[in-house]
Design brief:
Distance between the termini: 49 Å
Strand content: under 5%
Largest sheet: none
Number of helices: 23
Number of strands: 0
Length: 437
């Protein structure tokens, strides 16, 4: 957990002079010197007397500070203090210290209220929205983003307005309120066309979300329109061509002796080459597109986008790689290409065992069982189902276990009527206990 030092105090001119004098162990008379009287210093420290520019310069010299520091109003100090506290809060949020961040942001809002610092209200409420979103408190998050919007619209901060609409859209999407999500995303899209955001992944993320929402409300043409927008970006965004152009410019500038400008282009090249974080963002977008095509029944596109994710993430061995493998396997099974499906099942199974992910291990073994069942290799299918039952029993998922017993009963129907009845009865009993039937 990150801890911060005590926050600075917001002081009047007199309070600052008194504080500095005491820190230097000076008496009123020592600070006054031959310039003024101790009584006058006392009046200034109690904010009972105004000071001239000449006297300010004298006091600043004696106290070893700048005149600008002494002249800073409470409002100016409050702005600086709240700016810093907001940055600290952002760090706390990134470190997942949400309670401390929330407490600190509420304190910042109090300071803003007390000293009329309006500029930071918006960002405070925006960050409170982020905190509530992380806590899955969706109603509170929307309220915070709506409060933030009021201040961002007032200040015409288009980028922050865009982020508010985008985040509210994401919340409605999580709550499966797809029409509400589309409305928020459309507001965000309007702003995206007005502000200059160079990161094309932001565009693709927004378009993939809009497309997903449209498919969920059965508007396939609208969904495809946004898919096409993503593919247009991918076509235009040829990284290799961009790198070659930047390298050419850097070399030309180097030859011309313009070393600083050349260095700027070389840094851009490094940034492009070092954009590792985009792998995850891009994978998320492609998986969303893959799911959209799955709902539309376009298996070729499901395979294409699942394969893209696998190509990006195959060395990372993470959740995105596994989701891409499931997409690939399911597509090959749907196309009756069992050899290819088994090839990717083998990769997925090795990863699941390595990462000790029992649920993923079960899913892959179930794929094997289903394939052998279709190929009328019931004995092998049964063997895989028993392995599935062992895993799910360990995970104690009664619903999946009941389904597996019914599946097992179906497989035994042509082998053993006794076993068929035994497993059907087990499955039905579990369904009754779960109030499914």
């Amino acid at each position: 957990m990150i801890s911060w030092g005590s926050s600075m105090n917001i002081l009047s001119l007199g309070e600052k002079i008194k504080k500095l004098r005491k820190e230097k162990n000076m008496t009123l008379k020592e600070l006054a010197g031959d310039r003024i009287t101790a009584a006058q210093i006392s009046h200034i420290e109690r904010d009972k007397s105004h000071t001239s520019q000449e006297l300010l310069e004298y006091l600043a010299y004696q106290l070893d500070v700048s005149v600008d520091y002494l002249l800073e109003t409470k409002e100016m100090q409050s702005k600086k203090l709240t700016d810093n506290l907001i940055l600290q809060s952002e760090i706390l949020i990134k470190c997942n210290d949400l309670e401390k961040a929330e407490d600190q942001l509420n304190e910042v809002i109090k300071i803003c209220d007390e000293h009329n610092v309006l500029d930071n209200y918006g960002i405070c409420n925006f960050l409170l929205g982020d905190i509530n979103l992380k806590k899955n408190k969706y109603s509170e998050a929307v309220m915070s983003y709506e409060k933030a919007l009021y201040y961002f619209i007032k200040n015409n901060d288009k980028e922050k307005i865009f982020e508010c609409y985008l985040n509210m859209g994401k919340i409605y999407m999580k709550e499966e309120f797809y029409k509400g999500a589309i409305l928020q995303f459309n507001f965000a899209e309007t702003l995206l066309n007005k502000i200059q955001i160079d990161d094309l992944d932001i565009h693709k993320d927004l378009y993939s979300r809009i497309s997903y929402c449209y498919i969920k409300i059965d508007k396939n043409e609208k969904s495809l329109y946004y898919i096409n927008k993503i593919e247009e970006i991918d076509t235009k965004n040829n990284q290799e061509e961009e790198l070659n152009t930047l390298m050419l410019k850097a070399n030309n500038l180097l030859n011309m002796g313009q070393f600083e400008r050349s260095k700027e282009y070389l840094k851009k090249i490094l940034e492009i080459l070092d954009k590792d974080k985009n792998k995850t963002e891009l994978s998320s977008i492609y998986l969303t597109i893959s799911e959209i095509y799955k709902n539309m029944g376009n298996l070729d596109k499901v395979l294409e986008y699942s394969q893209r994710v696998y190509d990006i993430k195959k060395n990372d061995d993470d959740e995105y790689m596994m989701r891409s493998l499931f997409g690939i396997i399911e597509t090959y099974i749907a196309n009756y290409d069992y050899d290819m499906a088994k090839k990717y099942c083998k990769i997925a199974l090795a990863s699941s065992i390595k990462n000790k992910n029992k649920l993923n291990e079960y899913k892959i073994l179930k794929y094997y069982s289903d394939m052998h069942k279709v190929q009328q290799e019931n004995a092998i299918a049964i063997e895989y189902l028993h392995k599935c039952i062992n895993i799910i029993s360990e995970l104690n998922d009664k619903k999946i276990l009941a389904d597996l017993y019914i599946n097992l009963g179906e497989l035994y129907s042509e082998i053993s009527k006794e076993k068929e009845l035994e497993y059907y009865q087990k499955g039905v009993r579990m369904y009754k206990n779960l109030d499914i039937i």
